[in-house]
Amino acid sequence: MAGNVIELGDAEFKREVLESSEPVLVDFTATWCPPCRVIAPVIESLASEYKGRMKMAKLNVDDHPVTPEQYGIRAMPTLLFFKDGKVVKQIVGAVAKAKLDEAVRQVL
C-alpha cells in the first residue's frame, strides 16, 4: 500500500494514533489474510478522499504483536477508529466501500 496509508509498528502507535490531533483508522492486517488484501485498496482510496481530515494507517499483526494484543485483536482485518486517543468504532472483516465510507463519516 503506497501513498496515503501510514505503515505503523508498535513503536509508532502511541505517537501516530493515540496522540493524533485528527481521527485515525487503523487496519490491523496480515500478509496471509485474503480479506485484508481485498480491503487494502478500499482503505487507500478513502485515505486519498479524507486526507487532512482522517489519518489512515495499517499495522501488521505478525510483525508487531504488542498493540493488537492490547486491543484484543483476534480476527483480520479488524479496523479500529480512534478519536482523541480512544476507540470509537470497530469493524471486523472486509466490508464494502460504502459501509466503510459511512463509518468514516460517522467518526468525523
From TrEMBL:
Residue stretches making up the Thioredoxin domain: 1-108
Family matches, as Gene3D superfamilies: Glutaredoxin
PROSITE patterns: THIOREDOXIN_1 (PS00194), THIOREDOXIN_2 (PS51352)
InterPro entries per the UniProt record, alphabetical: Thioredoxin (IPR005746), Thioredoxin-like_sf (IPR036249), Thioredoxin_CS (IPR017937), Thioredoxin_domain (IPR013766)
Alphabetically ordered keywords of this record: Disulfide bond, Electron transport, Redox-active center, Transport
Pfam families, alphabetized: Thioredoxin
Family: Belongs to the thioredoxin family.
PANTHER family given in the database record: GEO12009P1 (PTHR45663:SF11)
The protein's name: Thioredoxin
